[in-house]
Amino acid sequence: MTHMNIPTYNDMLAAHERIEPHIRRTPIRRSEYLDELTGAELFFKCENFQEPGAFKIRGACNAVFGLDEAQAAKGVATHSSGNHASCLSYAARLRGIPCNVVMPRTAPQAKKDTVRRYGGRITECAPSTSAREEAFARVQAETGGDFVHPYNDPRVIAGQGTCAREMMEQTGGLDIALAPIGGGGMISGTCLTLATLAPECRVIAAEPEQADDAYRSFRAGRLIADDAPKTIADGLLVPLKELTWHFVSTHVSEIYTASEREIIDAMKLAWKHLRIVLEPSSAVPLACILKHPEAFRGKRVGIVVTGGNVDLDRLPWMQGAKGVT
Amino acid sequence: MTHMNIPTYNDMLAAHERIEPHIRRTPIRRSEYLDELTGAELFFKCENFQEPGAFKIRGACNAVFGLDEAQAAKGVATHSSGNHASCLSYAARLRGIPCNVVMPRTAPQAKKDTVRRYGGRITECAPSTSAREEAFARVQAETGGDFVHPYNDPRVIAGQGTCAREMMEQTGGLDIALAPIGGGGMISGTCLTLATLAPECRVIAAEPEQADDAYRSFRAGRLIADDAPKTIADGLLVPLKELTWHFVSTHVSEIYTASEREIIDAMKLAWKHLRIVLEPSSAVPLACILKHPEAFRGKRVGIVVTGGNVDLDRLPWMQGAKGVT
């Protein structure tokens, strides 16, 4: 583990100062109805209200605005077909530097459109790991762009940690901080911040049953890869990596999982009572609260609403929508 | 006009003090994308985030908490199948007094469920004006409940006016305040407040083409009734009455209208870029901005997002949804 560059609390503080001019201090949403239903006090931190619709703008801005001038001129690069790609493109445009994104040509058109709208330059590749790695190596060699990994990067984790800091300030204190877990960037940032700022606050992760590598790793005490994950919570398909596993294994108190049906029901419930548009990944925490109410009853629970980018023509409760099992 | 009890600016201030403990100071949402698209600075005041999901909690709370003890013991009564009924029930429950609601038996089950969830007592009637008036007279005679009209009531208008006051404080000033118009309660409250607080700010109303009694009345300079209005913006079906016409005729600068298709497109655009759940009525202002961009370009525009109660199983852009023409 000595080779890992583990971000510190001071890195998070520096990140917050660096990114604050570029991000929104998103509001907290509450619902008396959901509080009554769960017996808990729920504080929903609306990262879906960031301009590109996801918390990943925090880590992306921290990486982009932390570059020195020489590197900035060459820009940044990543491979992602999700919120990280659009958030990194958005952040790069804010600084006026190039952003190259390698994306499988099978990625949804809407995701490609969003990246391009923010000025990202897309290189398409075949939908395989080897093709992606090859395309990415070529793009990086050509551009010299700095690689910003979606989550296994200390700058990114320090950036994501700023969300928990705001959440503690805005709520005046919490018993539990709850966030979805995919690659583990948000959970790691939350652990990083709360370990110092509020060590008495438990950090709990929420994961789809059908992409439960974090749950199984947590139980086993060692990093276990996913075997063909498949979930409607498409932001959570990616696996933990060594940096995020470090935070999960040392600071997370518990990981709960929810089924596809439970995730969809929670998503609809949140839309109805919070009246916010959140994506399936962001509904996993509420699904886990409803499934394990005893763990949350009587507690003050902060929940990171990680993103709000959904295809409104293919909502999961619509007939014919994909992904429901 | 001398018989009308027209609310004053001081009534609005008193209302704000009265209701502040019971309502939310809702946030302002912004979108760089929508600003670029329209060339305006748009400030969306999220009244859909009130607990019962609509601005009508303001007027309802002002009426309910303004009752003396003797009247409060007898409660309140209204006829409505929309947000006013649920908001009045919610406000009455907050004070612990009865709320009777006369509703056509054909009203959607979801609306009845919401009123009952907030403790409202429903009396069903046949879906005709005469049946409603008869049922309401009977309920009032039996209960002695104070009649709180959905909009043609000075207490209600003074309550709705508190929204414009918050909006001016939160935005630091606006060139235009824009809200949908149905019965005219929100627009009247906005006129009431801004005539004193910000007389330089123009008040503009947005109305469905297919329920355009306010537009036609405004053009004619006299109150003209609707002729069989029919719109997906179901909160805007009701006509202006004498009190709201007073404010519209004396203080509104302009009324724009939008087609059903324009309303639906604007609703979807708002969901996508603001990531909030707003009801069709609340999308009419954005539809009018997109239709008349020259009137808004370069301006600071405050928009009241009036409500967020929609049937998520019957979104207007879904196949088979009703109301699209």
Descriptive labels:
Rossmann fold, homodimer, 325 residues, alpha/beta
Question: What's the short story on this structure?
Answer:
The structure is a homodimer of 325-residue chains. The first copy, chain A, is α/β, with parallel strands linked by helices.
Report on this model:
- Two copies of one chain form a homodimer.
- Chain A is built from 13 helices and ten strands.
- With 325 residues, chain A is an alpha/beta fold.
- Chain A folds into two domains: 9-54 and 154-305, Rossmann fold, CATH 3.40.50.1100; 57-147, Rossmann fold.
- In chain A, the strands form two sheets. In chain A, strands 1-2-10-7-8-9 form a six-stranded mixed beta sheet, with helices on both faces. In chain A, strands 5-4-3-6 form a four-stranded parallel beta sheet, with helices on both faces.
- In chain A, helix 9 (185-197) links the parallel strand 7 and strand 8 (202-208).
- The mean pLDDT of chain A is 95.
